[in-house]
Amino acid sequence: MDEPRRVLPMVGGPRPERADAAQNRRRILAAAGRVIAARGVDGLSLDDVAREAGVGVGTVYRRFGGRARLLYALIDEREREFQRAFMHGPAPLGPGDGGAPPAARVRAFLHALVDRTEEQSELLLAAESDTPFARFRDHYYDLYRLHLGTLIERVSPAADADYLADALLAPLAANLFRHQRHARGMDVPRIKAGLDDLLDGVIRPA
Prior knowledge:
Layout: H1 19-39, H2 46-53, H3 57-64, H4 67-88, H5 102-119, H6 121-128, H7 134-137, H8 139-155, H9 161-169, H10 174-183, H11 188-202
């Protein structure tokens, strides 16, 4: 099997909720999405979200604990879809139908992560910038690194798979990705092609 050797739960997995709590959660997330659509991520405040949702700001704080966790909650649904795809979905991204060779799965993962980052890069940037090491303390990153490292070991057993997993994930940090996309004018195909070149240089079949 081409899956990680230890099992990590899917990040952002659903928790049992009372019906009223689930309704409040959906209302707050929908309101946050509207605030961001109107003002951008920088314009997101919990006070504005509470007003838009028609709930008290204390409800928002109790439900999410702060702005960063609200941002991650907005990210979670798309993240769960992405995780299902690479952990359980069809080849070459996932292991289904017998899977693809490990090197093809690494390439497919990086390309899919580019698309996933493109979709929510502004939200990811805000969440990853909350503290200096926020990106690395989040379970998303741990799962990505474990998944890549496991595949790299199968392509090149002598390589330092743990280091190379970090190296391949580094270009997908939201701040660099947005700088390339919006300051340097790189399009998504160019970023994917660059990752292909990087991948060809760092992992080679034994």
